[in-house]
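Quick one, tokens below. Sequence please?
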């Protein structure tokens, strides 16, 4: 990790946290979750885009472009690899603690599992740049510098057959649109539900999630008064095998200028 290029001192991190919190005051929260909004299949007052309109055309927000993570929480667990046995803030089961206490990065490297901390349930917490683009009219693509990963968010329904587990799994996407009483869209977010994951780590020091993990994410975009554009990713990890309750985090990303050329993908690192 090029920590020097991303490192933020603790006082500055606290300042940024306060700044982002103020900038995002209008972004609706996503407790467990989506009350008052309609899912991708429609329903309720919020109903999502209906009919045959392609997901790309129906998008209520624009997620495309280049983004950089701004670490405003869990700095000590994200900017560096936490020490073995440091699990503060994760509601782990006893079985998960036993697994994490046996963490061995050398063994992960030897077995070809250096990417365990870069799976879908953990990748948005790893500092670095993102590139978001439309792969086609029904598939949104996220590329990450960290671990050189690619996530595909599919709006065209679940797969016809069970897919093989992978680091990024299978992600079903739906627009959630809040509407006025007269039917005019006023705000929206992206909901992504991911299954089919290979077992991985929520943190690089071996905090595990299982193959049965159900990952739910909400992507919101907000423009601050100074014109800066922010994306907030609210992540809910449901894994009864390793978590005593759902693990919910929020990660902040700032949009970069269109001419930003500082894109340097990095391989996965187990350490």
């Amino acid at each position: 990790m090029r920590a020097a290029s991303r490192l933020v001192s603790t006082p500055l991190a606290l300042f940024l946290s306060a700044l982002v919190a103020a900038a995002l005051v209008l972004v609706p929260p996503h407790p467990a979750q989506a009350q008052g909004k309609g899912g991708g299949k429609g329903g309720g007052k919020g109903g999502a885009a209906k009919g045959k309109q392609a997901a790309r055309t129906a998008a209520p927000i624009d997620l495309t472009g280049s983004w950089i993570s701004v670490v405003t929480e869990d700095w000590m667990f994200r900017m560096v690899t936490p020490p073995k046995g440091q699990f503060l803030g994760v509601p782990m089961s006893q079985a998960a603690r036993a697994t994490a206490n046996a963490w061995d990065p050398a063994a992960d490297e030897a077995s070809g599992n250096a990417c365990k901390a870069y799976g879908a349930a953990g990748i948005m917490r790893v500092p670095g740049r993102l590139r978001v683009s439309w792969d086609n009219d029904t598939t949104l693509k996220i590329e990450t510098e960290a671990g050189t990963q690619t996530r595909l968010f599919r709006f065209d329904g679940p797969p016809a057959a069970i897919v093989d587990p992978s680091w990024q799994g299978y992600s079903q996407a739906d627009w959630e649109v809040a509407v006025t009483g007269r039917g005019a869209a006023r705000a929206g977010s992206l909901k992504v539900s991911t299954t089919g994951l290979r077992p991985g780590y929520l943190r690089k020091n071996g905090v595990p999630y299982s193959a049965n993990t159900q990952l739910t994410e909400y992507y919101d975009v907000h423009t601050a008064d100074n014109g800066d554009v922010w994306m907030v990713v609210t992540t809910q990890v449901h894994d009864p095998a390793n978590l005593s309750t759902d693990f919910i985090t929020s990660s902040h990303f700032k949009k970069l200028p269109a001419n930003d050329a500082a894109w340097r993908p990095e391989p996965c690192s187990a350490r």
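The chain is about 15% helix and 30% strand. Residues 1-29, 31-51 have pLDDT under 50 and may be disordered.
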